[in-house]
Amino acid sequence: MHSAFALALTAALAPAAGDGGTTTFADWEMNDSSSSTVSDSGPNDLDGTVKGGVTSDGEVLTFDGKSGQVVVKGATKVPIGSRPVTVSARLKIDDVPGTDVGDYDIVRATPGGTFRLEVVARKQRKIAQALCFFNGSITKANLVAGPNLDDDAWHTLECTKTDNAVTLVVDGNQVSSKSVKVGNITLTKEPIYIGSKNGGDWFKGQLDWARIDLG
Ligand SMILES: [Ca+2]
Ligand SMILES: [Ca+2]
Description:
With 215 residues, the protein is mainly beta. It contains one helix and 16 strands. Strands 1, 4, 5, 7, 12, 13, 14 and 16 form an eight-stranded antiparallel β-sheet that branches. An eight-stranded antiparallel β-sheet has the order 2-3-6-15-8-9-10-11, with no helix packed on it. Bound molecules: calcium ion (2 copies). One calcium ion (CA) binds next to strand 8. Residues 1-16 form the signal peptide. One of its GO terms (molecular function) is carbohydrate binding. Residues 24-51 are annotated as: Disordered.
């Protein structure tokens, strides 16, 4: 391989940590004309495959809460390591997760939800709140906070892990943060699920987009 090309390729695959820049890990805009594919407009081509009860109107996906999910393969090839990670999504729901599903998994890496963004039921299932979870090389961290999401309105949820903290932002407002060194994030298994936990925790509602950013 030509050395200049090798250098460029290395730079493209592994942006320098600590350079202050943010890079897109995956960006699923969910505006596809195809009803079977969810295109990743980021640099890693992590296109998703639609399975079960998911319908598209070309701008948002509607998940049926029973069998609908998007399965994304290839994420284990993209290094994360010590870089900050932000998992975010814009969603709308008009039901608190019921006992049939327990909670809604919105974006879930494997195994065990290495990182995940969920909607969980609280206060005897009267309200729905955002959940962030990160499982790093040192420890795990979990946050549940923010406004009741069960109002049939659009909400943007963002979960971030940095070197020293995990943070949950809802609709641009920081609603929870914890000082914790979670450690490095490594995806050792495929796939990433959008809208389910591998046949459970089925999401019932709409997604406008979901994305993962590094840095
Ligand atoms: Ca769950
Ligand atoms: Ca969209």
